[in-house]
Amino acid sequence: MKIFLRESLKKLYEKYKHAFIVKNIVMLLKKRSYPIILGKEKKLVNQVLKSRNWNMSYGRKLIHHILEDEMENYFNVAGAVVVSSGGMALQMTLRGLGLKHNDEVIHVVDTCVANSFSILNSGLNPIFCDSNIETYLMDKHDVENQITENTKAIMPIHLWGNIEDMDVVNMIAEKYQLKVVEDACLAFSGKFKDQYVGTLGDVGVFSFGSSKPIQAGEGGIIVSNDSTFIREMKAMRHWGDKTLDYGVRDHDILSWNGRTSEINCAVMLEQFRAYKKRFSEITNSVEIVKKCLDGIEGVEIVTGAKNAGNTPSYSQINLRINSELYTSKTLILKLLYNHGISARDANFELIPSINFFKSKRWQDWVISNDLSRIESNYSRVYKNAQFIFDRCGIGIPIKYYNSEKKAKNLSMVLRRVFDVN
After folding, report:
1. What is the 3-state secondary structure (H, E, C) of 252-319?
2. Bridge partners of 83?
3. In the Cβ-directed half-sphere of 171, how many Cα atoms lie within 13 Å?
């Protein structure tokens, strides 16, 4: 009788196990999805509300000063400047570095459109380079192919928390006398050779918005070892008014309102204070998934450059599937979805494929002495980035592995999808 029941239950499980797996994953996701409260956010927000110091333009013992001080100590830099978003941080940085019309900034082609739009909104011209098929980040040879006399900056992007090779970036920057603006918005706490990303170029930029390691609704921060630049950024976030930071009511650079609220800063501060433990939890969970993938042929995690001492921050797990073994990436994505995992592309759609560029609306905003060369850059073929997008790159959102239980469930699903016993 016991044997009969056991066999009957086994048959039932085989018939309905897909539903069991999906239900289990959904229950786990409801427990620990982003954003989540990590520390004492509510208490500090209430403290700000009661103080009536809601704006960073006035008041005593302001939260954004505390946040800037703690970030400065954390990154061991000359200064940190809290602003309204990562995109605003990029725009302020580019203008603060002295870049002007007709100047060009190079970044990888398959990142978020926020990078190129931030460049355009700063009055500059984005120039794209292809991806590296191994790292899913910049292809160093293609970067050099795009450099002209108008190139003034390079923007390495630690996409999804994977680490760009900053030795190569800085070597190119030194060779061609370029500024280096690190976009570390998705890579908080990530390290290159045991040094925090965001501190390896001229300026580093972080975001606390959607899908970022630390989430506060919105917000961003600029870090640099140039104290003069930091002072300029603090003035620039107030429409360039120099009263607070220079003691003179005057304006000498075209600026924005880059401020955020003290309420927002309170959430940022408490999320930041509790993030060290959170980062460790996520890193440990990824190790569980890595061990699972060790037994699956033709599937591996991509973490960017492979220098000793590199530490990704895993805002997303990027997979590379062998396109010869698994001929249909679309089918893999569908199978993952059927098992409760809404996976996506490892990289973004190529920026020139977006209608703003495809329909040539960029021409209304670009100021250049050589429009034909820029148009050639926007219309060229980006072979590696396209291959990653079409054939081999799969991204697993952090909500599927931000705890040990979720990582084990994800591992189980991956083994099933890739048909590993």
Report:
1. CCCCCECCCEHHHHHHHHHHHHHHHHHHHHHHHHHHHHHHHHCCCCCEEEECECCCCCCECCCCEEEE
2. 220
3. 9
- pLDDT for 11 equals 56
Structure tokens that stand for 309 in this block = 């001492």
CATH number at residue 60: 3.40.640.10
CB 316 within 8 A of CB 213: no
Is residue 138 in some structural domain? yes
User: What confidence tens digit (pLDDT) does each residue in 49-60 have?
Assistant: 999 889 988 777
| Average pLDDT rounded to a whole number, residues 305-317 | 95
Residue 188 and residue 161: Cα distance in Å, rounded? 7
Q: What is the pLDDT of residue 36?
A: 79
- Residue 268 resides in a domain: yes
Strand 344-345: give its sheet, edge to edge: 299-302, 316-321, 393-397, 344-345
In angstroms, rounded to a whole number, what is the distance separating the alpha carbons of residues 321 and 345? 12
Residue with tokens 């009263």: 243
Q: pTM for this one?
A: 0.90
For tokens 């020139």, what's the residue? 352
> Given a cut of 60, is residue 245 above it in pLDDT?
yes
The answer to whether 219 and 335 have CB atoms below 8 angstroms apart is no
Domain-located, residue 69:
yes
For residue 215, what are the domain limits? Answer: 41-272
DSSP element (H, E) containing 30? helix 2-31
**Residue 165 near residue 190, CB atoms below 8 Å:** no
Angstrom distance (rounded) from CA 203 to CA 173? 13
